[in-house]
Amino acid sequence: MNSQILQYKIARDPDEYQQIYSLNYQTFVEEIPQHEINDSRMLKDRFHDENTYVIAKAGDEVVGMIAVRSDRPFSLDQKLGNLDEYLPPHSVLCEIRLLSVKEAYRSTRVFYQLCKVLLSHCLEKGYTMALISGTVRQLKLYKRMGFRPFAELVGKDAARFQPMYLTRESFENSTKAFRRLMVRKSEETLPHVFLPGPVPRHKRVEDAFKKEAISHRSSLFLQEMEEVRKNLRKMTSANHVQVAVGTGTLANDMVAAQLTKLSGRGLILANGEFGYRLMDHGNRFDLSFHTIEKEWNDRITLDEIETVLQCDPGIKWLWTVHCETSTGYLYNIGKLLSLCQKYDVELCVDACSSVGAIPIDLKNVYLASSVSGKALGSYPGLALIFHRDKINPSDSIPRYLDVEMYATNGGSVPFTHSSNLLGALKEALQVVDYEKNLIISQKVRRLLKQEGLHLLEGESYAPWVITLALNRELCSRQFGDVCKGAGILLSYESKYLINRNWVQVALMGSQNEWKVLNAMSVLTREFQSMRDPKVIQ
Length: 537
Known about the structure:
Blueprint (H helix, E strand, L loop, with lengths): L5 E5 L3 H18 L20 E7 L2 E9 L5 H6 L12 E9 L8 H16 L3 E7 L3 H7 L2 E2 L4 E3 L2 E8 L1 H19 L6 E2 L8 H7 L9 H18 L3 E6 L2 H12 L5 E6 L2 H12 L4 E5 L8 H10 L3 E7 L1 E2 L4 E2 L2 H10 L3 E5 L16 E5 L10 E6 L15 H5 L11 H12 L3 H17 L14 E5 L6 H10 L3 E2 L4 H6 L1 E5 L6 H19 L6
Parallel strand pairs: 4-5, 9-20, 11-12, 11-13, 13-16, 16-17
Antiparallel strand pairs: 1-2, 2-3, 3-4, 5-8, 6-8, 7-8, 10-18, 14-15, 17-18, 19-21
């Protein structure tokens, strides 16, 4: 099955009807021997002129169909003879027939989506009960969808059918269970995780993590630690890097602790959640600093920063995020560094969501923080602190936050460490692929825009963090829940995203292009379904 977006609609075009005849033949002559073979390999239903067909299309190809009609007699009238005796009185009936899905699209959500669109059509027409002759080969699936059997089996021995009915209530009661079934069936084909953490991991990373733990005092551990540090320095051009057990929050606390040793004031930039968190780090360490604060998603210009630096020569350090994960906003570190050097200001960078996503040069950055579990594609749990200069000792900084203790500990590590996390990070550094990730990100952005989703974007945005700003008519939490039900985990449950009605697709970690695009097809289908719950005419 390819990764094209599937469209669900009422058949209208002559070409669609020709494909319906062909699919009808494939299913009810070649697969289920219900009709005679013919040379044209086409089968036009005897009730064709009365049928309304709901179809699934991948591009121009019809890959699934289901038909409904309301004119009596139904096919079940002829098969049972006393049909009305089995049914509640005063029901407004229709008959569902000719359900067919091409083999490549089975064990997916196509059947469910066809039924969902068909139900919407039936409710529009005022039908209260739908009848079907369900092939005995798929009775378990029909029951999961909410169909209820009645009467005895009908048809020939080679093509036996169970009369069944479906009401709105039985469909809705079975929907959650059916969704769970479809998610389980599609788990192997959907890339479930589009979170900024935890992220999908390469098999080499997972295998390394599963190895037997070793002592952090052992020579083998120390060799792996030095190899990881060497590769991190090579990746970022940093002069020094330390690896601690902890999160990005810990790494930023370690940066803040070092800033207490600098004289002068600072400047913190904030136009998103994590910029404002840097301000909180500064306040908790009683740092003296100015701020440039903007509304989320508003650009902070170099001119604005330079104006503040000019007005206060006492500013000696500037602290900013590189990629503002809450919006996807990406600061130009090279230009910021040049500006800081012009005014003799030390630049500090929160690079938690950028190291591993794009090439980054930290050689002349005073301090920078990152983590193992985001763009680097490993497990969360290791805090990374990059520093330009050798760190002088300081008794005023808490032991665990003192970068100097990690840097000058005689070749060993100062505190208990995890060989599993270190081994996983070591492998993750070997499989980082900037070009592949950029190509996937560009394709995802194009696809989402083509399907009518509004993205926060521009030259100042990280390709790998895609923020979808939903209209007020759509609820971001509900959309995220629906996508989760379809097996796609988006970033949407943070309070700051809920408050803005945003959801995010974070393309971090080990991503497979085909699987990503396939998942985006499901996402856009759910978006279209929520935006316009009626049948696409």
